[in-house]
Design brief:
Length: 424
């Protein structure tokens, strides 16, 4: 018997067929989508799951009304919570709080964290504004003090963190994968450092879980957040993972219907309110019910792709892009070449003053024949990093399971011809 040692081919064509946006034309041009870090395209299955909800259910869930229809809706919520818990390898669905996205998850933690004599929060300059600004505002309200750890070539060095984390640190908040610098952050040492000094660790997984499997038990962070839309799920839904004890130690963030266990009132004085435990305690108001089956389907879709080939596929695209960019003298790549491919994106900036990012963007949309390239240029809501690097903006290519080497090459050819013409 001969045993094949060939790696299983990654069935990218089969994956692409599930994403109708890749098939259609926009102004007569077909899409080359290199903007998945902004949001991943939605599969047919996700779109159908959401629309099926509206067509066949359309009611609110079972904690308010308890009729059979409401119970069917509630079952979708329960399924999604379980799917999210399994996706992150959480111990229990009670560790999964639904929010409207990563942004709301960070706002929740920044607002509700029980700061006491520990009132310092350590952030990094890689953080998206979704992480930076909620803590910045807490600092402006006088609740906390902020400390910043600066990255080196897109990476946070634990040795730099050591100086910032101490017995006054309440929380260290860090991205697992920067939305600009690329690569991933090795968090084991940072977690040990934070926990060793009695601080909690918040991990922003918004750019991590689209092509990595997160295991919160191994990661051992206290809080982890991601957005459904960045893994091909629906908009308006996010996940905040927290250990139950940590979640239940948080103060209130948003209160309202669905959060209350009991209200006692004698009709005169101050009512006495008892709240439910996490996760319900944080999920005030009618939920975005239609998004739950969409999230369940997005997670099912991603988990059906074996982890190693998915990572290898996305890594190979990043590697190809980074190597191609490095051969173009008019631009410079961000991050460390040796570990960029651990992430799912690559950013660069022009080093030639004649290279106009705005013109290049127009070129990508209008000058590539029957194709156009969708990507993102600017500060990517990562103003701290751009300030740190003294850059006005960067251009970012970001990848998901559906991208191909041919798309990378098409982009690189376009870049070469734009750069040659503009910088001649
Ligand atoms: C690293 C990172 N964190 C947080 C966010 C915020 O995610 P959302 O807008 O889905 O809340 C983003 C979005 O781009 C991101 O890239």
């Amino acid at each position: 018997m001969t045993i094949s040692t060939a790696k299983p081919a990654f069935a990218v064509d089969k994956i692409r067929r599930e994403f109708p946006a890749l098939e259609r034309e926009f102004n007569g041009k077909k899409l080359v989508y290199l903007d998945s870090a902004c949001t991943a395209l939605k599969s047919r299955g996700v779109a159908e799951a959401v629309s099926r909800f509206y067509e066949t259910l359309g009611a609110c869930g079972g904690k308010r009304s308890t009729h059979l229809l409401a119970q069917a809706v509630e079952a979708e919520l329960i399924r999604a919570r379980q799917a999210a818990a399994d996706f992150l390898n959480a111990e229990s669905p009670n560790e999964i709080v639904f929010t409207s996205g990563t942004t709301e998850a960070v706002n929740l933690v920044a607002r509700a964290f029980p700061y006491d004599e520990r009132r310092e929060v350590v952030l990094t300059d890689l953080e998206h504004n979704a992480v930076f600004l909620p803590f910045y505002e807490a600092a402006r309200r006088g609740e906390i003090e902020l400390k910043f750890c600066r990255s080196r070539d897109g990476r946070i060095e634990p040795d730099d963190m050591v100086k910032l984390v101490g017995d006054k640190t309440a929380l260290v908040a860090i991205t697992h994968a920067s939305n600009v610098a690329g690569g991933t952050q090795g968090l084991a040492e940072i977690r040990k450092l934070a926990h060793g000094r009695g601080a909690r660790l918040f991990v922003d997984d918004a750019q991590f879980v689209s092509s990595h499997r997160e295991d919160v038990r191994t990661l051992n962070a206290d809080f982890v957040a991601f957005s459904a839309h960045k893994i091909g799920g629906p908009f308006g839904l996010g996940v905040l993972y927290g250990r139950e004890v940590e979640l239940n130690s948080l103060r209130h963030y948003k209160v309202g219907g669905g959060t209350v266990k009991s209200v006692r009132w004698d009709g005169k004085g101050m009512p006495e309110v008892t709240y439910l435990d996490a996760p319900m305690r944080f999920e005030a108001g009618v939920a975005n019910f239609a998004a739950f089956p969409g999230l369940t389907e997005a997670i099912r879709f991603l988990r059906a792709i074996p982890e190693a080939p998915l990572r290898e596929h996305v890594s190979s695209l990043v590697r190809r892009a980074a190597e191609g960019l490095a051969r173009i003298p008019e631009v410079k790549v961000l991050g460390r070449r040796d570990d960029l491919s651990e992430g799912s994106l690559v950013s660069f900036y022009p080093v030639h003053k004649e290279f106009s990012v705005a013109d290049f963007n127009l070129f990508l949309n209008h000058e590539l024949g029957d194709r156009f390239v969708a990507l993102r240029a600017g500060e990517h809501c990562a103003h701290l990093l751009h300030q740190s690097l003294k850059l006005d903006g960067t251009v970012r290519l970001s990848f998901f399971a559906y991208n191909t080497a041919e798309e990378v090459d098409l982009f690189l050819d376009g870049l070469k011809s734009y750069a040659k013409e503009a910088c001649a």
